[in-house]
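One-letter codes give the sequence; the fold follows as tokens. Both lines appear below.
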Amino acid sequence: MTKMFRSMPLAALALTAGVSCGTGKNAEEGVKGRPNILLILADDLGYSDLGCYGGEVHTPNLDRLAQNGLRFSRFYNAGRSCPTRASLLTGLYPHQAGIGRMTFDDHLPGYRGTMTHNGVTIAEALKQNGYQTGMIGKWHVAETPLRTDQREWLAHQVQHEEFAPKENYPTHRGFDNFYGTIYGVVDYFDPFSLVNGEEPVKDVPTGYYSTIALSDSAVSYIGRYAKSEKPFFMYLAYHSPHWPLHALEEDIKKYEDVYKVGWKTIREARFERMKKLGIFGNQTDFLSNRQSAKEWESNPDREWDAHAMAVHAAMIDRMDQGIGKVLQELERTGELDNTLILFMSDNGCSPEVCQDYSPGENDRPDMMRDGTPIVYPRKKEAMPGPETTFASLGPEWANVANTPFRFWKAKMYEGGICSPMIAHWPAGIKAARGSVTDEPCHIVDVMATSLELAKSNYPATYKGNKILPMQGESMVPVFKNGKRKGHTYIGFEHFNEKALMSNDGWKIIQPGNKARWELYNLNTDRSEQHNLADTYPDRVAAMVKEYEAWAERSMVVPAPR
């Protein structure tokens, strides 16, 4: 432990010891002033990937935020990247925000593939009330029509001025500044759809790596914003650790031997750490069964699979390093004490085997800028990590990353929609430092929380558009004492996967239109191991009725066939 601390910057050591910087211009005001708000969003991060949630990945900076802040054990997303992002930004459910599925137009109100103009973003709402606003990273809430030369475009061999209609870029949705990508999937070493403001970034320097560039940009933005007396709102949306598995060799080396023990051993070790950390209070029986019959000892691809998970860990590690830089800059500028930091993930870890997808289509390049082919290792013939490969973890490691839950991204089980959330705000969070709250909250609540803290109103109209009513509820009471009244029900739907959760801890799930509804009591069965639908049919019927009403209100219907 001593050796690890010696390598940390002094600012990080102060955080570890629970010391906050009280000399900034906002620190004297404390909760009386309007705080800066920094949203940090990871992409496809598993529930137990972080050290402070039981993982073995080295995440000292996020762990320090948890030690000095508040962790949520029941924080929910919308199950997939673009719907979650639209919901986060607007305070509406995904279908109301226009992205019930993906960023393609299905010509139905809840499925337009572009974030609605009948909602406002947090940036739009806060900007008109005096906040500086900046975004860095992955946008993925604008329709991205494909072109006839998509293959060459993905490889930077042809150029087009727009990656989506510019009216749907961040700079037209309330952000003063933007550096990042419009599309969802990127080559980490040479990202497609990278823009600065509205201008395409046609070349990147040698040695470029997305996570570093985004972190450094965030540091630059904070340095600039801190010079003003105005508070700032910043949204830092990392690509990491979404596939493809791309990482720096120096980061991969840290983990090259860690995962050679296999899926079951790593998963059980995470479970034991989660118990010691008290993520689910005093519960001790919350590890679901593995979702694969494959055994590590008989796995012929052990070397490849262990390396793939090492790359996943390396991607998270580098993101944490970048967040450390951001914290240092907040501390250097005296802004840390009065900055609300919310760290989240857009969904659970992905089970996808992206090397089986068609290369050169949609957002998946099949060659590098110079024409060098990119290998999609369908037979695991090439190790993941470098730019010349395009691969992902697959379901076995996704099941590990989402310990203790079943399932994963795009499913409405806990493994898909429940993800880590850390809140850190020394001047404003009164709940016990380092504590865990089991209060159910949803990403739709971030808008209401931001507005309350910024002393801003939610508009009825904006730029001539009638604005849909905000759906979220403020999390400020949770910051104060770990509890709030909260939502009566929270609803979920994605590609005919449906769920509804009540504030007394019961949850129904329908995994497909023709499937039977399932019922779980999350108070005693955190990992959905015991389907109680046959035991409590009246409860199921009542909750299905509530789901149908929610779906009608939330523009889930009419749905694409």
